[in-house]
Every structure is written in structure tokens, then in C-alpha cells.
Amino acid sequence: MKTVWKFPFPFGNKIEVDMPKGAEVIHFDVNYKTFCLWAIVDTERVEVATRYFRLHGTGHHISPDIGKDNHIATLQDGKFVWHIQNLEDSQMNRIAELAKEGLTQREIAQETGLSPATINRKLKEIKERDLE
């Protein structure tokens, strides 16, 4: 069965949210003074994965690998305007690119600022995704 779930997260630049695998983010807003993401979740999928997002204000620096394809939503909160992007796709694409260039997992970790264990896990996820 599919339902909509709310995922509150603390204010910050880099956001990590644990949600069921395959959850589809559909909305971003403030609810009771807390930033939240809403996602369509298949309640029969129990495996949880950490998803990564970036929150930034208008005029703030963003990573060069973030584009309109990563954009989830824009929120006006009083005098502030916030934008949230899905980092997972851009991060996974960057890791895949570096692996195709022949970099080792350790080199990819140094290039991306992620741990070698995270790179190992992400490369396995990329392989699984490419097999589907």
C-alpha cells in the first residue's frame, strides 16, 4: 500500500533523511516551524536508506554539479526563500563518472569528500541500479 509520510529535518546546509527505499519526494515545506519533506512511501518496503539533500537560500553558493534536475522545491518563509535539492543523483553520477575514469575507491573518496566505505556502498548501489 502506498501512503504519504512526512519527514521532518533540522535546519542545515547538508540534510540526511532516513526513509524507506524507493520513497518519492513530492513536497517541501515548513510545518509547525520545522522543515519537512513529504514523500510517497510503499508501506510494504521496509528497507530504509539514508537520502541526502542540500538546503540553501537564494543567493547562496551551490555546488557546480547541482542543476535543475536535482531541484525538488522552493519555499518562501517570510523574508527568506529556500531551495532544496536532491544530492543523491548528482553524487551518484559524480561517483560513477570518476569510477569510469579509472579512479580507485580511495581516490574517489578524496575527490568527493566521502569515506571509502561510503564510496564502496555507493558503487554497489550504482551497479545494482544499472542491472535493473
Q: Identify the strand order in the major beta sheet.
A: 2-5-7-6
Structural class: alpha+beta
User: How much of the polypeptide forms β-strand, as a percent range?
Assistant: 35-45%
Average predicted local confidence, pLDDT: 84
- The portion of residues assigned to helices is 25-40%
- Which segments are poorly predicted (pLDDT under 50) over 5 or more consecutive residues? none
The number of helical segments is 3
Shape: globular
SSE order, one letter for each helix or strand:
EEEEEEEHHH
Radius of gyration equals 16 Å
Please outline the major beta sheet: 4 strands, antiparallel
The beta-strand count equals 7
Counting copies of identical and different chains, the oligomeric state is single chain
Q: State the separation between the terminal residues, measured CA to CA.
A: 22 Å
Number of domains: 2
